[in-house]
């Protein structure tokens, strides 16, 4: 049985979509490759001016609060495609509790924001800690499959010591 011929597209012979603007070449004739993901992609959305999450005074010690957002959406900064997921926030309040309407409005700011899923989860955790100052907190993002791959990201506070 004869194997199909290769399309010739490899690391040594990349397709035009894998090379830089205008299909630039080096002096030896090899194509100039552009990175598929840039530092701008990696940090996209993190400089967004996120709104304050309002809080109210906690009245009881030693209990856990779980907030579930099963209709969370954001946008991939590389492809512009929507990311759908379930974001779960778990925390033990200290002196302040998150006000739910304010939290909902905060989570909706991600709706049209280009930001990686990993950054979503870590940004939400940072803001929960910033506004509520909990004893501990965990944010879990379970993102639905795109291209056959789903992602689960978990971030915890306090952060592990480096």
What does this 3D model show about the protein?
- The chain has 162 residues and is of the alpha+beta class.
- The protein has 2 domains: 9-38, no CATH class; 44-157, GTP Cyclohydrolase I, domain 2 (2-Layer Sandwich), CATH 3.30.1130.
- 19% of the residues lie in helices and 30% in strands.
- It has a 4-stranded antiparallel β-sheet with strand order 2-3-5-6, with helices on one face. A two-stranded antiparallel ribbon has the order 1-4.
- A hairpin with a 2-residue loop joins β5 (136-146) and β6.
- The model is unreliable at 1-21 (pLDDT under 50).
Q: Supply the number of structural domains.
A: 2
CATH architecture of the largest domain: 2-Layer Sandwich
Residue share in helices?
Answer: 10-25%
* Low-pLDDT runs: 1-21
Distance between the termini: 56 Å
Give the topology.
Elements: H1 39-43, E1 55-57, E2 65-75, E3 82-92, E4 96-98, H2 100-108, H3 117-132, E5 136-146, E6 149-157
Antiparallel strand pairs: 1-4, 2-3, 3-5, 5-6
Overview features:
alpha+beta; GTP Cyclohydrolase I, domain 2; 2 domains; 6 strands; elongated
